[in-house]
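Reply to dn_fold:

You asked what the input looked like. This is it:
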Amino acid sequence: MKVSKAHILVLVGLVFIIMKISDYYFNLPQKVELSKLKHILEPGNYKGSGFYEPTSNYPDGLKTKLFMVIKKTNNGLNCKC
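and this is what came back:
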């Protein structure tokens, strides 16, 4: 059987579609039960930092300072970022 350019284009197209579909399903948010989430999130002050790799717009990269406050309220937890 001879492989033509059309066969190759169809194959490349199918691979591209499969990659897009799998990328979509792997990046969906995960459902977490509220009871489990409350065990993870503890009231308090959280600090951190981040570094983003260099891009054409930011050749030296980006450094960030992160801060979050989680407070316990009558309705559950409140987050201020």
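Residues 5-26 form the longest helix (22 residues).
Hope that clears it up.
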